[in-house]
Amino acid sequence: MPMELASKLRQLLGNDAVADDAETLGAHSGDKWFAAETPEVVVFAKSTSDVSKLLKFASQNKIPVTARGAGYGYVGGCVPVRKGIALSLMRMNRIKEIHFPDAIALVEPGVITADLKAAARASKLFYPPDPASMKDCTIGGNATNAGGPRCLKYGVTRNYVIGLEVVLANGEVLRTGGRVHKNKTGFDLIGLFVGSEGILGVVTEITLRLLPLPPARATLSAAFATTGQAAEVVQEIFAAGFLPSSLEIADHFTLEAARRDLRKMIVPAGNAHLLVDLDGQEESVHSEAAAIRELLATKKPNTLEMATGEADCEKLWALRREFSNSLRATGLTKLNQDVVVPRSHLVDLMEFAETLQAKYGFSIACFGHAGDGNIHVNIMTKDYIDPEMREKVDRTLDDLFAQVLAWGGVITGEHGIGLAKKRWWPDATSEVVRELHRKLKQSLDPHNILNPGKFVD
């Protein structure tokens, strides 16, 4: 069957669009999560027409199709659970247009996020979303609704998508939205597809809203004795009327891992770290940075530094950008949970992580977006492939997610559900919500060929 399928797809799309060798199949079997399934064949689409032909064929023959980008997801979202066809969109990687007067970018899904940001900057424009993997991840992959540190002030991917071209399961091409920044022509179909994890359609072109490039930037770095102190300072910054572009926090375990790993980099002395980023016009940035520095100084931080200008700010940010690598360098398996809690429960979350450490024996590293409560709770474990260890991790997550939901939070802010959080999908939603998801899926994909086996099945 796989050889026959590959042969038919070569006839349909051409020889260079189809691969079924073991190495290519293996490379398209999963992402950064701990799950994999080998597809029967890999298709490399170069155009909307290719995707349309493929999905029409797959729908007629009821063959599963799992779309994927660079494979940098954290939840197994692009694992081809039911085998079938892995659809790579990495060859659809053109920045078709950056238009300053309209302040938009027109891109294909395989465009690397950092490349788009650089191209926008060269045109004096700004694409704010900055996920940690932006040098590797794609705009199409960011459709899990990724945000990154700047989402505090600027919002997430969904806030910048103003137009989409989507190929539906039957091969029909849908266009919704356009080049304008306001649109209320019917239902919010863009919002439906952004964050749908490839379950409702395959996005082949994205129109993105861009902003004027802020001319000035400042960063403040402060270390504190406890994470509780650092988290309380977050609330005081907001109470004083400031809205930073980013507000990041890190705990003791994260900093200790960085101290062991980054031998040439000075990690501030303390058990908690806070980064505050500001951008805008020169005068306002300098004024706000000075005021926040004064506020921070009154809280008796262990260390306090301030930088202005892109290059010097990035020197302070280098520590934050290496946290994940430093945690991996411990030799433990890093299980990243991107929970979100109301800001009023930020201290509670950090303290609850310590409770989980004592109860289950795992080290837990917490860092992330303190400004909007989206904290990456990283369970650090050995032998995750061992079934007993995995079950122990799941019990830990049972407790974590139950508490997060009890506080009015959510189990994922950016990474999505995929396979990793499928177990907790019913806990995080009502039956009414799940049934509505099933009806939408049935309407748009009646044969269940698009990314089957995930949370809506």
- Going by helix content, strand content and strand pairing, the class is alpha+beta
What is the distance, rounded to the nearest whole angstrom, between the alpha carbons of the first and last residues? Answer: 24 Å
For the biggest β-sheet, the strand order reads: 15-12-14-13-17-18-16
Number of helices: 15
- For the secondary structure, the number of strands is 18
**Sequence stretches where pLDDT stays below 50 over 5 or more residues:** none
What is the helical fraction, as a range of percent? Answer: 25-40%
Biggest beta sheet attributes: 7 strands, antiparallel
Tell me the β content. 15-25%
Whole-number mean pLDDT: 95
Nearest-angstrom radius of gyration? 23 Å
**Morphology:** globular
Report on this structure:
- It is a single chain.
- This protein is an alpha+beta fold and 457 residues long.
- Helices cover 35% and strands 22% of the residues.
- The chain has 15 helices and 18 strands.
- A seven-stranded antiparallel β-sheet has the order 15-12-14-13-17-18-16, with helices on both faces.
- Helix 7 (227-239) runs antiparallel to helix 12 and helix 12 packs antiparallel against helix 13.
- The radius of gyration is 23 Å and the shape is globular.
- 47% of the residues are buried.
